Amino acid sequence: MDCLFCAIAKGEIPSKKVYEDEQVYAFYDIAPAAPVHFLVIPKTHIESCGAITPENSAVVAHCFEVIAQCAKELGFTDFRVVSNCGDQAGQSVKHLHFHVLSGRDMTWPPG
Ligand code: AMP
Fold first, then answer.
1. Is the terminal CB of the chain with fewer CB neighbours within 10 Å at N or C?
2. Cα–Cα distance between 86 and 25 in angstroms, integer?
3. Is ligand 1 within 6 A of the CB of residue 50?
């Protein structure tokens, strides 16, 4: 399988690391949409939020623990977590990832 984020999680493609453990990798987005913008991914390949099951959901919970921990360590309290699922929602990389955006005012609903 040819997956950009699998390759980034394995260190085969360089990225700017925010956090890493055995299950999860977090790295800064190459095209930041906010002053703080990083991505949190499971190291195992899950295609999107639409592919979360009882068998693989533990790592998703862990992603959110990591998000809270990174926010504390990076020193911000207000942020947005986004996961685009499918082409119509704007998912360009078909490996589950959570965008973490912070450092500016945000509007709702998103475009
Ligand atoms: P999405 O469009 O929701 O699938 O999000 C994919 C995100 O990955 C986009 O915000 C891209 O800017 C980001 N991205 C793509 N390639 C890289 C890369 N090599 N390193 C870091 N971020 C990337």
1. C
2. 21
3. no
What is the residue whose two structure tokens read 């998912």?
91
What local confidence, expressed as pLDDT, does residue 75 receive?
98
User: For ligand 1, is residue 110 a contact (CB within 6 Å)?
Assistant: no
3-class secondary-structure state, position 25: strand
Ligand 1 contact via 30 beta carbon (within 6 Å)? yes
Separation of alpha carbons 73 and 3, rounded Å:
29
* DSSP β-bridge partners for residue 80: 101
User: What is the full per-residue pLDDT of the chain (111 aa) written as tens digits?
Assistant: 799 999 999 999 999 999 999 999 999 999 999 999 999 999 999 999 999 999 999 999 999 999 999 999 999 999 999 999 999 999 999 999 999 999 999 999 998
Cα gap 10→4, rounded to integer Å: 10
Which atom, in ligand 1's list, is nearest to the CA of 89? 3
